[in-house]
Amino acid sequence: MTRYIDVKDVSKLVAEVGMTRVLTTMASYIEQDYRRWDTFEKTARLASHSTDGVIELMPTSDNRLYSFKYVNGHPKNTQSDLLTVMAFGVLADVDTGYPLLLSEMTLTTAIRTAATSVLFARYLARPDSRTMAMIGNGAQSEFQAIAFHEMLGIDEIRVFDVDETATEKLVHNLAPYRTLRVIRSDSAADAVRGADIVTTVTADKTNATILTPEMIEDGMHINAVGGDCPGKTELHADVLRRARVVVEYEPQTRIEGDIQQLTPDFPVVEFHRIVSGAEKGRESASQVTVFDSVGFALEDFSALRYLNAASRERNIGIELDLIPTPPDPKNLYGVAIGSTSCEPLKRVDTALADAIRH
């Protein structure tokens, strides 16, 4: 039977386990899977672009489990009180092809994106980082803020958004985290000034320049989350030229990330090489590092693995009758007409033969 997890089920899991533990455990799953990079089938996601957005499929497999995620990105949706991003996903058994899990992935993607950001920052940011600027205070912002506070020790976040109501929402939602200082900024430049880490998580599908070269200081780590499809960027090209740029899967990031602005020979480092020890994350305290984040299918695979294990352990979700289970697997027609016996088929076959003869 396929387990089905909906939005309420993921909310229940977070309530039972706690957001911090969910983030930490998911980050651990993602790190484990990056460590076995060579076992995965990898491809850039399949994207269908329209004027106002994109719909994508993100598949991968490690020859034991297969997963895919359906996800959209439509920045104008909020004007109709719809989410900018929503997703669902499947985890399946490779040997049989049978789906093990069908899950919502709108909440899950927000959690796994924040978990991935912190995981990369552990390897790329200065260990003494305590302040972060957050440019873009929309649907992803709380997850990022909580992850960096709880998992990396960030105790001050300076927030800015052109939409003041988004900032109000973020400040309100972070109020329970009393050891986290949340400071409103008047501009992106004001928020970034003196920050150890800068997270950009804007939604507009445009070649924006949220960060410009004069805003960048020695030793900063930039967690660039919002530039994630062709024609959508957040960083001035000279910011990238100054930095050590780390990516998830280079063929995909060349198309979708901020590095789409640069020539194909611009040097980047894939994260799995840093996890394995083949490359350093940060080469010096003064070096500027950039995680050009676009989201990769391996991270969704990890998130689905975690959800599958956690939901079964806690008996969250339901068993879904998604796949027919006839006693005779060759008698699928019997299921279609409401019978798994061979007798109805025999009667139909006899009637058909009589009709042909006449």
TrEMBL record:
Protein name according to UniProt: Ornithine cyclodeaminase
Organism (species): Paraburkholderia dipogonis
